[in-house]
């Protein structure tokens, strides 16, 4: 333990406790007996004399060397010392030098002190989680869905459209069709551009010796995940990182009794902590993450989902990548791989879509230093940058896309790595549709929030990222909304021509535009995914080709459902249920990581 403490830059008791060889209660009891002082295994938070600011700072930095004052029932105060992060010899000298205080000093287990401090600052943390971003950067918060001028524009459009159709139906339909077609083609053009991305071989990373490994914080938001918590804990335990330099927060709502019960039934490792989030609106994943972030002390912060199985070496790859990257690289996105691609056509389509996104689109955007929409998991942040931009927006239901845009606005960049995280795709429409609805609704929120000041956004992002942002968050949603109308109009016009009915020139033009749109749209989607599929993944590709029109229509249904929810329930978080993996986690890609330690 002493050798580990010297190598990891910690102390003897930290290594001893995180090893699991000794419980906190036994250690504190034995140490108190050795030092001839009292000890407490539980602390009454109402008797602690401490400010919210100091309590929060101690929770984050583990500043246990500060004695805590505890009001006694008889009016006398006691001083509480947490023997974690304090040298034992120093602690012994402190007590020996002050024999008169021996009766007033008590040792407290670190977990007991954390529990007491968390109870003291629960309300303050809740207020911070809900209001912090809005208080700091109100113009970048989704707390207000649309501002005044955006509402005016939308209202004027909806009021003018029926009048235009009544006065000039043909011209109005042609103009709308042309606008939507141009938007649709911009999305197609972005996919074709990403086809130029070349997926090279995995590069062996050998970082320079930079001293001790930093503290890494891992956050996992859980909600109604009782079925997968045992697999999750097992997957997180496989992470290759010194346990004393790794803290894992399992963030769970206080009223989620099933998940909390499942977690309590597991013997969690000492470096894992369950953070219970008070019940308060909005009930979203980013609100839970914003609540837990002030409780972490890591130089780097990783985010995973409940069903994730990250490659055990992923944190090592990230650390190596950050070491060779300039400070403006604030986030690294790991690729998401689907483990159940053979579980049905929906899972196959989902896996195909993810392949195109994480193996081609995101690396292409990263290589050109363009704004990058983060995936909802396996994001790795420099903590300083995450704090600077305000963390997660509790009111945005796709907090990943919003945070990617906000990082870019502050001058930071996001890059990608190759070391994957495995997860499961939805296998039924009942699970796929709510998830896709939430994604599309969040993209709408993100676009509305960041387009409140278009000129300022253009200046902060630059022309390239500004255009990509319009395509990703506005164009993709509008394309999904317009797709059934483009397809339906083209089909009707084709039938009229086939029946030799007289058609006007504008109808023939529309038919040509629709054919080009649909053909190029499907082709770009299929080619982008095909280019990055592995040999074994190309088996059964004909199923993807045949189901693509159906899949796109499903995305259109989800988009219209998202519009309805944005108007009625903008902060509704539709939960995606997860099940244990049917088979073992697939092997990670070839390529070892060598660390100079």
Structure in a nutshell:
It is found in: Membrane. The chain has helices at residues 2-8, 12-18, 24-35, 52-61, 88-97, 110-136, 148-167, 169-194, 229-237, 257-264, 285-292, 314-323, 345-367, 383-388, 399-409, 429-450, 454-461, 463-498, 505-532, 541-568, and strands at 38-40, 48-49, 68-71, 77-81, 105-108, 216-222, 246-253, 272-277, 300-304, 309-310, 329-333, 336-338, 379-382, 413-416, 421-423.
Secondary structure elements and pairings:
Blueprint: H1 2-8, H2 12-18, H3 24-35, E1 38-40, E2 48-49, H4 52-61, E3 68-71, E4 77-81, H5 88-97, E5 105-108, H6 110-136, H7 148-167, H8 169-194, E6 216-222, H9 229-237, E7 246-253, H10 257-264, E8 272-277, H11 285-292, E9 300-304, E10 309-310, H12 314-323, E11 329-333, E12 336-338, H13 345-367, E13 379-382, H14 383-388, H15 399-409, E14 413-416, E15 421-423, H16 429-450, H17 454-461, H18 463-498, H19 505-532, H20 541-568
Parallel strand pairs: 1-5, 4-5, 6-7, 6-9, 7-8, 11-14, 12-15
Antiparallel strand pairs: 2-3, 3-4, 9-13, 10-15, 11-13
Helix pairs in contact: 4-6, 6-11, 7-8, 8-18, 8-19, 13-19, 13-20, 15-16, 16-18, 16-20, 17-18, 18-19, 18-20
Membrane topology: Multi-pass membrane protein
Protein name: Glycosyltransferase family 2 protein
Transmembrane segments: 144-168, 174-194, 481-499, 511-533, 539-560
